[in-house]
Design brief:
7% of the residues lie in helices and 35% in strands. The chain is mainly β. The chain folds into 3 domains: 78 residues, Trypsin-like serine proteases (Thrombin, subunit H), CATH 2.40.10.10; 95 residues, Thrombin, subunit H (Beta Barrel), CATH 2.40.10; 78 residues, no CATH class.
Amino acid sequence: MEAEPASADPIPQAATPVPTPPPSLAETIQRVRPAIVRIESFESSGSGVIIETSGQTAIVLTNFQVIEDGDPIYVTANDSKRYSATIRGTDPARDLAVLNICCGTFRPIDIAGPADVEQGSGVFSMCYPLSLAGSATLPRGIVSATRYDTARLSEVIQSDAAINPGNSGGPMLLPSGEIIGINTFKYETSLSGRPVEGLGFAISAKTIKEQLSELKSGSYRVLPTPTPVPTIVPTPVPTATPVVIYDFGNSRFPTTSTNLSLSNSPLKITGTIETVGDVDTFVFQGDHWRNIRLQRKLSFAWLHCDCDRSSQNGPLYHVPINATGHR
């Protein structure tokens, strides 16, 4: 009887890889929290983020507006220890600054690449609004748009995540925990003064990466000096001695009138009228007359007064003047 052939060993099947689930937002927050810092300077406060470490020193990225008041500058890391900071580099035009802090154990977080920023991507910030005590707050939103801001020479990221005083300099983060921008400014009203919402902007990671090497090298840029506008000094107008010209009532006189009767109510001119269309202040028995217009005709001036004491059209006063325009 023939022996049965031994059965071949089964071919092992390759295991189907199980994708690693992305970290939850809570896990990301705990991972990046040590890198979020509170910044306090002479007369302002804001936020920042640790982007590099070397031994017991760290580089902090923030807005220039947060530290422009100068020394002293203090940085509180991980909501616990406070460090004295020094300015390493500034770029006021782009509203960026980097600081040095020492000496401790620090944890940085990475700056994302431009390809990671997509319209509609969820984002969140970690910052210290209004100098509130306690840990950093977490406003959330989405990337609404990206655009180039000519005033700040920067690509900026628009988001509906809240930006309040104190949020400036804090990082805008992807759910993965990478920095895509530094919260910088927002619009509160339209050009016509109407209130708007959800228009916050961050200097983008693209601009940050382009400028970071120069900032870390100790560059202290200054805002360009505006071109001075020459001041036009007006030619002084000769001051005429106030004169009393008599009120001829509401009658309209022809330019050739020479014999005009005087009334008992003086019309006092308290200033100087030089050219047609000039406006001056007239006083009639203690009351101010408004909208005084002067029309020259030959050697005479017509004074047209719209005032409380006259009809809608006002009286016409026939007043002689000299060749230079002074009465």
